Amino acid sequence: MRTVKIGDKVVGEGHPCYIIAEIGINHNGDVDLAKRLISVAVAAGCDAVKFQKRTVDVVYTAKELATPRPTPFGETNGDLKYGLEFDAEDYAEIDKFCRQVKIDWFASPWDEGSVDFIQMFNPPAYKIASASLTDDNLLRHIRKTGKPVIASTGMSTYEEIDHAVEVLGKDDLVLMHTTSTYPAKYEQLNLKAIPNMIARYAVPVGYSGHETGIPTSVAARALGACCVERHITMDRAMWGSDQAASLEPNGISRLVRDIRLVENSMGDGVKRVYAEEIPVMKKLRRVGAATA
After folding, report:
1. What is the CATH number of the domain that holds 58?
2. DSSP string, 207-223
C-alpha cells in the first residue's frame, strides 16, 4: 500500500490518521474568525486546516453573480461570493498564524488561477473538491505543482473516479470517500465504500464527512480511512451554507480523541493472553475444569 507525505506527516496504512479541520467558507470573510477556527483545530489536535479558493468571475457566470440573494454581504449572489473570498494579504496573515501555531494549512482551488494564487504560500498539499473531480484541466494544473493531492469523490461514479485517477496518477494521491449533501443523511454515508476503494485503487483512502454527528466518522477510521476531514464552526447556528454540517469546538475535540482511542485499540490482530488477564483467569475459571 502506498503512503503519502504531507508536511512532516505520513498518510497511509500503518500511520496515524491525518485529521483535517475544514474551515472552508465558515470564516464568513472574517480573518479573525478564521484564526479562531484555526486555534480550535490546534487545541483539538488536528493535523491541518483547509480553506476554499475561487476566482469568482471565472468559476461563476455573470448571470449567476447577478442573481438576487439577500446575504450579509449584499443583495446578489455575487456580493456573497466576493465577500467570502480572502485576498493575498488575508492569506499571508493566515499563513503566518498557522506557522506560529504549527499546523498545516492548504486549500481546495476551484480554478487554475486559484492554484497559482495558493502556490505563493507553498502549501504541503492540494485538495480537490468533489465538484472539481471531473475537471481534467484543473486536475492537470494542480499536478504540475508537484504537491501531494487529496481528492474527494462525492457525487462521482467509479468510472469518473477511475478517470480522475488516470489523469492524476497514483503517486502522492489520497482519495476521499464522501457523500456531497449538507448535512448528509446517515443512511447515505455508505462507509463500506472505504475498504472497497482501498482494494480498487491501492492508494490511501480517507473520509470527508458532512453528517451532523461524530460516531460515523470514527467508524470510517476503523474501516481503514487514513485521513478524516470534517467542517468546523464556532456555532452551527451561525449564518452560512456549511455551518449546519460542521462540528463545533467540543465536537471536533471529541472526534480527534475518539479516533486516537480507536487507533490505540486496534492492535495487531494476533490473539493473545495479556499478563493482566492471568490473575483474572485464575480467579474466575472453574478449578479443575478441562477443555473437551
Report:
1. 3.20.20.70
2. EEE-SS-SHHHHHHHHT
